[in-house]
UniProtKB/TrEMBL annotation:
It comes from the Bacteria. InterPro entries: ASHA1/2-like_C, START-like_dom_sf. This is SRPBCC domain-containing protein. Transmembrane segments: none annotated. Residues 21-155 form the Activator of Hsp90 ATPase homologue 1/2-like C-terminal domain.
Length: 162
């Protein structure tokens, strides 16, 4: 992840990452809870999906869990899906009872493959500048870099199992 960009005037964060894996595998890693929970948290934290329905209007409700058991919940609601090329979701922090902490953010994830390598481009629009600044203060850039490294390692393992 070399192109992490923050634009406070548009309240957006953009970044991309190329993976040495085919598009189907990378798509599955972002859309199947049993795979998501293996990489969607910076170590030593883990991801725990309570439920997920990857469909337009469907939701994922999950927590990032610390080694001490501290849980930070989030809701993701899928707003559009173009299979294996793009999906959008609305994201908000939440409490353990699924009550969102507003405002949230809109995520746009685009997938493309060339020569067996898959690139994921992510653009996150925050509904408020305060939310963007809170996200960055919580270590979003560093956490995302660690999380994408987790995915890179998992994809290498899963690619060899095929």
């Amino acid at each position: 992840m070399n192109d992490f960009t923050v634009d406070k005037t548009t309240k957006t964060v953009t970044f991309s990452r190329e993976f040495d894996a085919d598009l189907s595998l990378v798509w599955d890693a972002y859309t199947k809870p049993e795979i998501l929970d293996q990489w969607w948290a910076p170590k030593p934290w883990t991801s725990k999906t309570k439920f997920m329905n990857f469909a337009v209007g469907g939701r994922r409700f999950y927590a990032m869990v610390s080694p001490e058991g501290q849980e930070h919940w989030s809701i993701q609601q899928y707003t559009s899906i173009s299979p294996k090329t793009n999906f959008n979701l609305w994201n908000a922090f939440a409490d353990k009872d699924e009550n969102p902490e507003l405002p949230g953010s809109d995520w746009n994830l685009t997938f493309s493959e060339q020569n067996g390598k898959t690139t994921v481009r992510i653009r996150i629009y925050n509904e408020s500048l305060a939310r963007l600044e809170k996200m960055l203060a919580m270590g979003f850039q560093e956490g995302t870099a660690m999380t994408l490294k987790n995915l890179e390692e998992l994809l290498a393992t899963l690619s060899h199992q095929k």
